[in-house]
């Protein structure tokens, strides 16, 4: 029997009964020829890493990939979640409507699913219901990172060592959507500037003493790396990440596991401090070169 999943979100939970009644009546109209399941998007939980991904319901125990068709009835403000689901459906061969929902957004969670879908390496990342996130914290022991799904420059980004710490942060920022992510042991990370889908500068960022954030905005130091000496495979990953996110000007943050040397794409920044931060002259030069390329060699800048 074919299976259909109806997804909705009701800000007023008293309206949930209407959504479930609609699903029941729809199943009756179909004479049970198609199995109909119904869920609020807010009830789903998101799990993605380099080699696998899941979007599942923690209590009903279904996976979105179990269905033949996913129908977004109304998503309210859950655009990021909806986009991640469409990416997941496309990768798993599940039909969905409406297709407009698969459009670029800038949040960390759906970007992780996007990178996974084209086989780019991503840290193990969880998103969704707080109770489920707290329950699964031990998978990241002894330490993990919890950060604002829309955060930038290291804001609302915390290292946590216990369920209690995680629960406290989630409670203090009740209106913020967080992702929980494995903490990659590292000796710094790399900001690769990709202009017009070509790597132009590599900046190594190293955290200050006793800190875990490598961001220069959080006190990290910056070092310019010779582009020709940087691993070409890593540069290719950065270009692919900028292409899949459709960003001609991108700052791709990539990190190497200090123990295994496994690379991970942390995120792709749309506004990568081109007009501020370290190595302004070098960035300005490369930016001007990009404009010449885009406008044409005959342009006088």
Description:
This protein is α+β, with helices and mostly antiparallel strands and 301 residues long. It has 3 domains: 2-106, Rossmann fold (3-Layer(aba) Sandwich), CATH 3.40.50; 129-182, Dna Ligase, domain 1, CATH 3.30.1490; 189-294, D-amino Acid Aminotransferase, Chain A, domain 1. Helix content is 28%, strand content 28%. It has helices at residues 16-29, 79-92, 108-117, 130-135, 163-172, 232-244, 280-295, and strands at 2-8, 34-40, 45-48, 53-56, 69-74, 95-97, 125-128, 144-148, 157-160, 178-182, 189-195, 198-206, 221-225, 249-256, 263-269. The strands form 3 sheets. A 6-stranded antiparallel beta sheet has the order 4-3-7-10-8-9, sandwiched between helices. It is globular and about 65 Å long. The mean pLDDT is 89.
What is the percent of helical residues? Answer: 25-40%
Instruction: Tell me the strand percentage band.
Output: 25-35%
User: Helix and strand string, N-terminal first?
Assistant: EHEEEEHEHEHEEHEEEEHEEH
Question: So, CATH architecture of the largest domain?
Answer: 2-Layer Sandwich
Q: Tell me the Rg in angstroms.
A: 21 Å
CATH topology of the largest domain: D-amino Acid Aminotransferase, Chain A, domain 1
Number of strands: 15
- Largest beta sheet: strand ordering: 4-3-7-10-8-9
CATH 4th-level superfamily of the largest domain: ATP-grasp fold, B domain
What profile does the largest beta sheet have? Answer: 6 strands, antiparallel
Task: Output the number of helix runs.
Answer: 7
CATH class of the largest domain: Alpha Beta
Number of individual domains: 3
Distance between the termini: 64 Å
Structural classification: alpha+beta
